[in-house]
Design goal:
- By secondary structure, this protein is of the alpha+beta class.
- The protein has a 7-stranded antiparallel β-sheet, with helices on one face.
- A hairpin with a 7-residue loop joins strand 7 and strand 8.
């Protein structure tokens, strides 16, 4: 069972604005759900029935024909155990990670779509907060452009962190041109390391 796919469903279960995905094995199975929401192309991401889901191929902001072509290429590379996650794209103005740990929380943000800028292996801003029970997290450290995220954007991410009861997870998020938040990956941590995850140079 793919943890990457399960992550999408869990984000929606938590009431977050995660995309309604299609999961297919071949391009012929795609029904192009929510095509009425598509205004800047589609995203196709790879997943596996089992095994390591690190560094899997993906494509974004492309038309249907390109999605079909790329899924065939990805399937040839990954084999029969591969599945593909398809959904309409949006414009990524900012994106980043929300890491929720037992005693701390980290918010990282970058301009644009982090998956499409692998050469940019740093973040525009990196906040570290200390968590203690149900109290508001306390800002412990900030690196980079402190003003990169607005106060309301930062408060919203803090609100999300307090809303979710699970710990040792990373949630990937983004903000579109209308200021709407999207949540589109859930990564579990084990012993401080990412499972089925990616670093800035290791995305999938």
């Amino acid at each position: 069972m793919s943890r990457k796919i399960d992550g999408f469903y869990k984000l929606r279960k938590w009431g977050l604005n995660a995309p309604e995905i299609e999961v297919v094995r071949t391009p012929k199975e795609i029904k192009w759900k929510n095509a009425d929401k598509e205004y800047c192309g589609w995203i196709a991401r790879s997943a596996l029935d089992e095994g390591n889901e690190l560094s899997l191929p993906f494509i974004s902001h492309v038309d249907k024909q390109t999605i079909t072509k790329k899924i065939l290429e990805f399937k040839e590379k990954l084999g029969e155990k591969a599945k593909f996650i398809v959904y309409p794209c949006w414009k990524f103005i900012k994106s980043g990670n929300l890491m929720i740990l037992k005693d701390s929380m980290v918010i990282e943000a970058v301009e644009g779509y982090i998956r499409e800028t692998p050469e940019k292996n740093f973040y525009d801003v990196h906040y570290t907060f200390q968590r203690k029970g149900n109290k508001l997290p306390h800002l412990a450290n900030c690196k980079g452009k402190r003003e990169f995220l607005t106060y309301s954007e930062l408060i919203y991410l803090i609100h999300i962190s307090r809303k979710i009861s699970e710990e040792n997870i990373i949630i990937e998020w983004s903000i579109d041109e209308k200021g709407t938040f999207h949540f589109h990956d859930l990564i579990y941590l084990k012993n401080g390391n990412k499972e089925n995850s990616r670093s800035r140079k290791n995305m999938g």
